[in-house]
Design goal:
pyruvate-formate lyase- activating enzyme; 298 residues; 32% helix; alpha/beta
């Protein structure tokens, strides 16, 4: 077994602190929060390279090595109940709220999200929070694509109206249209879920509509990697934005593009400390999202 010491390892390059991502790979906050807190206490984590399984590498989690930690989740309840161990870092939040039916994803109802979201914004500020209405897909319930698009539009409107009602500050919004790759299609088909494959005109119509809804309520709606929604007038901006982090922290942050993401992604480079529990037939994801792109997650 090979252990690689990266430049992010403890005690190495101090000229530029690192942005830690926890995590795009799995919902660490919702499902593996005790593990995360344990690694924070230990001051670092040894991870397996997902592409070269015989190689491992070490990532320092010492606070002096970390510029910011970005938490990605569909359920921040664990964090809200026990935030203190992570308060040694400057925290940023990517909060996915899609509100699909239970047959499609096993997540909490909107009221739970609003409570958690309000607590996070009250304690950390809206400038550190992004709400992810992502991905957008139009589920076939037998009434045609227009009805499916209208249902998504109404759900988006309800989400923003609830944020508007209960929360004074405005987090930014991130969206995209689903990328129907073979793994997602296989997962959907396996569970008997059919979604419409919208054409560009339909995509334009939908995203122009929800942009207008966001604009009317004072929300900034952006997309990161999806050039299709850019054609609908939605500005592309990074999910992990080095400019935002640098502005808030008052320190220089790398503007390097994250080469580990797909080429369209605009995100600033970050180090993902998530684990892939599904690779060896381990735990399945608790959210069981039928549109998941990770093989073996559901």
């Amino acid at each position: 077994m090979t252990i690689c010491a990266l430049s992010i390892a403890k005690g190495m390059d101090k000229t530029m602190k690192n942005v830690i991502s926890a995590s795009r790979r799995a919902d660490v906050v919702a499902q593996f929060y005790p593990w995360l807190l344990e690694k924070v206490k230990e001051g670092g984590v040894e991870l397996q390279n997902p592409f070269f399984r015989n190689k491992k590498y070490y990532v320092s989690l010492e606070k002096d090595d970390i510029q910011a930690m970005v938490l990605w989740s569909k359920d921040f309840t664990n964090f809200v109940r026990h935030p203190k161990p992570l308060d040694i870092y400057s925290l940023y939040f990517q909060y996915t709220i899609n509100l699909y039916d239970k047959a499609i994803e096993n997540v909490k109802l909107l009221d739970y999200h609003i409570v958690n979201l309000k607590w996070i914004i009250d304690n950390y500020g809206a400038e550190k929070v992004a709400i992810r209405f992502d991905p957008v897909m139009f589920v076939d319930k037998g009434n045609g694509i227009e009805d499916a698009m209208n249902e998504r539009k109404q759900i988006f409107e309800t989400l923003l109206d609830n944020i508007d009602k209960h929360i004074m500050e405005r987090p930014r919004l991130i969206t995209s249209y689903i990328d129907l790759n073979s793994q997602i299609t296989e997962n959907l088909d396996k569970h008997g879920i059919h979604i419409f494959n919208a054409n560009q005109k339909q995509i334009d119509t939908f995203f122009k509509t929800i942009k207008k809804i966001a604009d009317e309520r004072g929300f900034a709606l952006t997309s990161c990697a999806d050039v299709r929604v850019e054609m609908a007038g939605i500005e592309r901006k990074p999910c992990i934005d080095g400019n935002i982090i640098s502005s808030i922290e008052g320190e220089k942050v790398s503007r390097a593009k994250d080469a580990s993401q797909r080429k369209e992604c605009l995100c600033t480079k970050s180090i993902d400390i998530g684990i892939y529990p599904y690779l060896d037939g381990g735990k399945k994801c608790i959210h069981s999202c039928k549109y998941c792109y990770v093989k073996g997650a559901i």
